[in-house]
Amino acid sequence: MADSLLQTIEAAKKVVLSVGSGDGSQQASIVKLGHSNVVTTFYDSEATVYAKYPKARQHIEYLKGRSAGSVLFQVDATNLHSHPELKTKKFDIILFTFPHTGIPNFNPASIASNKCLISRFLRSAQQLVQKDGEIIMTLKTSAPYDKWTFPDLSRYEVEMSGQHAFYANAFPGYIHWPTERIGKTAVKNGAAKTFVFTKKRKHEDEVDEKEKEKNSGDPMVGCSFCPSENFSLAVQFVQATDEDISDLVLDILKVNVASKEPRAMMTVLDIRRLLPEAMRPDTRQLNRVLYKMESKGIVFKGPPRSGVNNKPTWRHLAEVVKHT
């Protein structure tokens, strides 16, 4: 058995590939904690990342100066195996923390798009992970994330080998920001879980060339939009809570601000109609959530709309301040 020094040396050699890296705070934390072999990638351009996240420049400059790995922009997590700087490499860990397409959660298309993202990411990442490596994905497990689910992995080279609670405190300084960031509100992780995927034994030793070709082709194969592959529930999820509803309400109010009528105020019924039908709360719960958000300074309660009813109207507080 190797002693702790040899184990430490071996661990230091492991190369981590991070995709969809947000503002780079988790990746900078990993390097600060002592692991320098981190390749950090972002879906957006460098300018867009800096525009979205105020501290991104600080984290990225740290990574460029301290990490042995590179920092890459405009990297598609669903097409890693075709990227010119990644396709010839193998990684011990491929990390994707809180994947999201950016389509607001209240939009019915969000579920299908994120299923597709997860499916295509796994199909691409399995081609770059070492045979004894791990693909590590962290997801929220409350509604509406419980509808995302994992694809049928029988046609993949990887399988789920474990799961555990997400330990955000393990990454000092890490902040989970929304994919399409509007305002200054970070995402609450809630009952998030980390899922670990590893290579199947048969794909290490027994897979034939025909099956390899089938599994390494067009990453759209296996996408949730494709009828050729069904999704199956792989995880136990919790019911929607006030916190879940609050996150969705915030999305709705932010999108409303970005609409053609940025000064428009919304009633509780306006907001309720835009929430996913499967988890639409009654007006009592929604009002409770809105008043709780008001007490925390997240939303602004305005006067009733003329000629509608006596119900108050609501807006994202940060935008009210901006326009006053």
Structure report:
The chain is of the alpha/beta class and 324 residues long. It has helices at 4-13, 25-32, 46-52, 56-66, 109-125, 201-205, 209-215, 242-257, 268-274, 283-295, 317-322; strands at 16-19, 38-41, 71-72, 91-97, 129-139, 150-151, 158-165, 193-199, 231-232, 266-267, 299-302, 313-316. The chain has a seven-stranded mixed beta sheet with strand order 3-2-1-4-5-8-7. Strands 10-12-11 form a three-stranded antiparallel beta sheet. α8 crosses α10 (283-295).
Feature tags:
alpha/beta; 33% helix; seven-stranded mixed beta sheet; 324 residues; 12 strands
Record the SSE blueprint.
Layout: H1 4-13, E1 16-19, H2 25-32, E2 38-41, H3 46-52, H4 56-66, E3 71-72, E4 91-97, H5 109-125, E5 129-139, E6 150-151, E7 158-165, E8 193-199, H6 201-205, H7 209-215, E9 231-232, H8 242-257, E10 266-267, H9 268-274, H10 283-295, E11 299-302, E12 313-316, H11 317-322
Parallel strand pairs: 1-2, 1-4, 2-3, 4-5
Antiparallel strand pairs: 5-8, 6-9, 7-8, 10-12, 11-12
Helix pairs in contact: 2-4, 8-10
